[in-house]
Amino acid sequence: MSERILVVEDEPDIVEVVSYNLRQAGMAVEAAEDGESALEMAEQSQPNLIILDLMLPGIDGLEVCRLLKQRVSLRGIPVLMLTAKAEEVDRIVGLELGADDYVVKPFSPRELVLRVQKILSRTAKAPAEAEAPEDRITAGPLTIDPGGHHAFVDGQPLELTATEFKLLLTLVKRRGRVQSREELLNVVWGYQYPGYGRTVDTHIRRLREKLGEAHSLVETVRGVGYRFRRDLG
Ligand code: CA
How far apart are the CA of 137 and the centre of ligand 1, in A? Predict the structure, then answer.
């Protein structure tokens, strides 16, 4: 079964280049040219990933992202946003709305395919996990079920994106140890190069918001990175 990608973009040239490259990499591609039809297609076909352009006719990409993340049936689908360079602020906002990654236009199709593959590989369950489910991890009010990809605070389920879940799991497994932004980028996002520190900061901020009263479990170590508290009562 090939992975199914929904490309949401109104510029035919870009749709063509992106679709061609994804298909060359063995993926199945469908395209929507505006946000409303994208939401409909996503409901029907439940793609493995959505590539979402920021600039769309009608409802824009940010709003589409927000709507995707509001719907229980769609919020688990990872979103990679396409943005233009001038939209620096918007792309950060995009990440706060729940996008998993972004690529700035003009981009190389090869780079885009690599990003897609990285997101898919971290959202897919590893075969080893499926064979031997890891035990639940408990840290104070937090419980994590690594196999089921669920996390709970005081028994209440958290609604985390795949990236937020992996970030939390990584920090908890290394609790008590400071993780630099570069280490987290490498482990969680699969990036081998620095320069995306703000991506980590943005995801940490959103993770803390979702942790609610348990937010202080994730500590900032100024100038170094982040650490999950070890000294839990
Ligand atoms: Ca566009």
Answer: 43
